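Sequence, please.
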């Protein structure tokens, strides 16, 4: 076995046998060779096999106790020491509007609804009380794991519900968290690297790493404190997110990960409950979604239909946006979109290109700058 700055390297059975044979030649003469027969030969082979097995076990333990190479349960145990837990398989969750009698209190799990289109079933995951108008916004979760999508146009049948509940419809401004498979070792390792610190659960890096589960990309999440932003007063923290889940779930994640002490800034206020059942008011800032308009003059190659090329150009731009990931506070340069346009079949040249914020800027320009609270979206 070799141990150096590169780690542990085990020797092969063949190299062991050669070393053993060299030692035995000193006792039995230079003509001695290890063969698959005889007492001495069998002892030598068995010894080599046991030696190799032990060294492999040592090497495996060394790999599992290194946070950069650990996997499975070893990785879970190591990372949890600094407060970073693996993201387990998640069920799709969405907010649904429930209608019925006024002031009706319903327990968690008391309702099951079924999609008319794909027959997927969802249960309410928390207790709720209908208002004076008989309605309530309720978090529903799919009974199955996986990426099961819900659209605002979907219709649902009530399978089970307390007496007095009459109808369910997706909320007008639908909040939806798509399910996922259990976080892989590689995905988990990337989040861990962002959270390396002593007592990391109370650190900014660890909070960021744990909340990053709830955004599609880390570019959609910012944590601001007095040290990182002079506009944040002492004793406060501002969490800005373009999250991919419901406000309740994201607020609960903030409660679970932010150490007790700082006050919150933002315009979204949600009441969640700590592990003692006490209500806690969590405030954060939901990123403002800004539509970006792009205008361009292009020259189309001879023999191509204008409408066909035009549609392909739009597809190329949208694909570029998805891959590029424009996050919070980004500067969007119009020239960025020249490459995907030129790569579109049928485009000979881009003669001009400009951008602007829909409904905000009156004129197109070379670039637009978004604030830390704004994120560009494509429709």
């Amino acid at each position: 076995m070799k141990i150096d700055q590169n780690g542990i390297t085990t020797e092969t059975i063949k190299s062991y046998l050669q070393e053993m044979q060299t030692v035995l030649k000193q006792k039995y003469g230079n003509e001695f060779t290890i063969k698959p027969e005889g007492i001495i030969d069998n002892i030598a082979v068995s010894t080599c096999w046991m030696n190799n097995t032990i060294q492999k076990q040592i090497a495996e333990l060394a790999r599992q106790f290194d946070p950069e190479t650990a996997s499975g349960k070893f990785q879970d145990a190591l990372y949890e020491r600094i407060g970073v837990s693996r993201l387990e398989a998640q069920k799709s969750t969405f907010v649904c509007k429930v209608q019925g009698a006024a002031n009706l209190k319903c327990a968690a799990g008391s309702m099951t609804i079924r999609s008319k289109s794909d027959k997927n079933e969802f249960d309410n995951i928390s207790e709720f009380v209908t208002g004076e108008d008989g309605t309530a916004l309720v978090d529903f979760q799919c009974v199955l794991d996986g990426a099961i999508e819900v659209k605002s146009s979907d219709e649902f049948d009530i399978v089970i519900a307390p007496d007095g509940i009459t109808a369910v419809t997706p909320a007008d401004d639908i909040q939806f968290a798509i399910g996922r498979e259990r976080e892989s070792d590689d995905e988990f390792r990337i989040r861990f690297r962002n959270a390396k610190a002593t007592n990391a659960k109370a650190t900014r890096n660890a909070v960021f790493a744990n909340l990053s589960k709830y955004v599609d990309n880390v570019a959609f999440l910012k944590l601001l404190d007095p040290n990182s932003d002079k506009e944040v007063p002492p004793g406060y923290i501002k969490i800005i997110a373009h999250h991919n889940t419901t406000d309740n779930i994201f607020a609960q994640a903030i409660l679970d990960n932010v150490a007790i002490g700082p006050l919150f800034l933002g315009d979204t206020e949600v009441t969640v409950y700590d592990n003692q059942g006490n209500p806690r008011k969590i405030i954060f800032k939901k990123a403002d979604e800004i539509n970006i308009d792009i205008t361009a003059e292009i020259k189309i190659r001879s023999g191509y239909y204008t409408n066909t090329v035009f549609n392909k150009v739009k597809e190329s731009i949208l694909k570029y946006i998805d891959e590029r990931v424009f996050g919070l506070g980004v500067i969007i340069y119009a020239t960025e979109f020249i490459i995907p346009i030129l790569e579109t079949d049928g485009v000979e040249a881009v003669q001009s290109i400009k951008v602007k914020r829909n409904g905000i800027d009156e004129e197109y320009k070379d670039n637009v700058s978004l604030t830390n609270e704004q994120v560009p979206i494509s429709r």
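The helical segments are 13-28, 39-64, 72-80, 185-193, 204-211, 247-257, 306-324, 338-342.
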